[in-house]
Amino acid sequence: MIYTIVGTDIDKREVALAACAKMGEVTNHIYSEHIALLEPLISATSLFGDKVIAHIIQVMDVASSRDELIRLLGEMKESKNIFIIDEPFADVNRVKRLEKYSEKVFDARLEKEKGVDVFMLCTLFARRDKKGVWVEWMHVRDKESPEAIHGALWWKFSTMWQDVRAGKPSKFTLQECESIGRQLVTSSIEAHRGNKDLKVELEAILLSI
């Protein structure tokens, strides 16, 4: 069976993850580079005969792993094991596809995520594509709230930061991640205090790469 989490709203995601945690302890974490491990889990059993619970994280961001996930959705739905598909940056089309196979979809999307696509900006930032970031920033900065952009960027960046800590390949060093992470946190705090303009702070962070 499949449970799906979509969106970047931190509070809604915490509720969703807490609900999923009640199903039992995750036995497998599947990222794009591990997608070949997904199919065997459909009929697998744990060492003690319990259900396998697989947390499948952002595999739809990569074409090859997205195609494999889509191919297996039907079998995953019918499986006795539990598959938690976690796609914070899923667009409307992906959400609709996943809804067809999911027991439940935890919708953690911000209200405006359904309109302007800020996820491309986040993806380009993670790729360290400065020109692409500038073009996308010009497109979304006046169409989306700074808070929504900050939320999406923070989720994407924090996920990448975890990968860097785990030694996975990245365009950023651990020191750079710590510096940017500090800037993202500080910018939000200072903006809420009225000391700084969050949009200005975000632009400076985005263009610092």
Question: Which features would summarize this protein structure in a list?
Answer:
209 residues; single chain; alpha/beta; 9 helices; five-stranded parallel sheet; elongated
Summarize the topology.
Blueprint: E1 2-6, H1 10-21, E2 28-30, H2 38-41, E3 53-57, H3 63-78, E4 82-87, H4 92-99, E5 104-107, H5 119-126, H6 130-140, H7 146-165, H8 174-192, H9 198-206
Parallel strand pairs: 1-4, 1-5, 2-3, 3-4
Helix pairs in contact: 5-6, 5-7, 7-8, 8-9
Task: Give a quick summary of the entry.
The protein has nine helices and five strands. The protein is an alpha/beta fold.
- The spatial strand order of the largest sheet comes to 2-3-4-1-5
Q: Kindly report how far apart the N and C termini lie.
A: 41 Å
Query: Helix content range of the residues, please?
Result: 40-55%
Number of strands: 5
Radius of gyration: 18 Å
Overall morphology: elongated
Instruction: Please trace the helix and strand order, writing H or E for each element.
Output: EHEHEHEHEHHHHH
Q: Which percent band covers the strand fraction? A: 5-15%
Q: Total helix count? A: 9
What structural category arises from helix and sheet content?
alpha/beta
The major sheet is characterized as: 5 strands, parallel
**Average pLDDT reading:** 89
Poorly predicted tracts of residues: none
Please give a structural write-up.
By secondary structure, this protein is of the alpha/beta class. It contains nine helices and five strands, in the order E-H-E-H-E-H-E-H-E-H-H-H-H-H. It has helices at residues 10-21, 38-41, 63-78, 92-99, 119-126, 130-140, 146-165, 174-192, 198-206, and strands spanning 2-6, 28-30, 53-57, 82-87, 104-107. Strands 2-3-4-1-5 form a five-stranded parallel sheet, sandwiched between helices. Helix 7 (146-165) runs antiparallel to helix 8. The longest helix is centred in the last third of the chain and has 20 residues, at 146-165. The termini are far apart. The relative contact order is 0.14. The mean pLDDT is 89.
